[in-house]
Amino acid sequence: MIEALQELPGLWIGLAALIGMLIGSFLNVVVYRLPKMMDREWRAQCAEILPNCAPSAGTDGLPPVYNLVVPRSACPNCARPIRALENIPVVSYLVLGGRCKGCRRKIKPRYPIVELATGVLSALVAWHFGFGAQAVAACMLVWALIALTLIDFDTQLLPDSITQPLLWLGLLVNSFGVFTDLRSSVIGAVAGYLILWSVYWLFKLLTKKEGMGYGDFKLLAALGAWLGWKSLPIIILLSSVVGAAVGIGLIFLARRGRDVPIPFGPYLAGGGMIALLGGQSILDWYLNTI
Question: For residues 173 and 170, what is the distance between their CA atoms, to the nearest angstrom?
């Protein structure tokens, strides 16, 4: 099987796309449930400190046991459990006509879009790196960035339960020199955190406001750990340009107030993905241009 995947790039890319869509289905669960799990944990901690704060389990509208595995996935409208044949990525959505089989309410198109996008990005990674450890590790990074992007869009939170393991995994991967050497990886992690930490405090001293969250520091640190310190200028440049363009567009086109916060994590994740797939080419072009 390994020989076939090495000799037939199309088979490897197709397998990566299939696995990616399956992972995308799981990422939908992570994006939906993890913020609720975090909220329950915070409420439980609050209850330990403040006796008048009621414990969250059973009082937050969720089952007593609620995690990424339990309970089974169900329709959010009628609570009908989703069967295995109704949970096939993309295919089930098309077969069901985008509606729940029980209550016939519409299913958000975001679910198949995430599944399809994860499959496409996984296939792109498999094509770019070929069969091997680099592709497997890169897929893991991309999957984590997809989850962080969606959670930040929904809640403006970047969970430590994803960013911190992602940082340590990047250091571990590069201890074997998969993307860069360990020294560059460690410097990238430290520099990534300190760069945005410094921007945060400079902005706060000048404006008396918080310009970004600590999750952004940790995400850039994780990207530095994965891709090395040389990738940080490209990631910051790409994320800042795109973030500024989107922010200005929302202000003038959507008439969104300037005081309405815009999550920066998705742009960092996008810059990280671009740096992963074409960072060296972009860096070479940039250095030659200047």
Answer: 5
79 by DSSP, 3-state: which? coil
Q: Which residues pair with 74 in a beta bridge?
A: 81
Please, what sign has the CA dihedral across residues 254, 239, 275, 145? negative
**Three-state DSSP class for residue 261:** coil
Cα 95 to the chain's mean position, in Å?
28
Name the pLDDT band for 257 (thresholds 50, 70, 90): low
Paired residues of 106 in beta bridges? 99
In tens, the pLDDT along 179-196 reads: 999 999 999 999 999 999
Rg of the Cα trace of the chain? 21
**Cα gap 151→154, rounded to integer Å:** 5
**CA–CA separation, 69 and 75 (whole Å):** 15
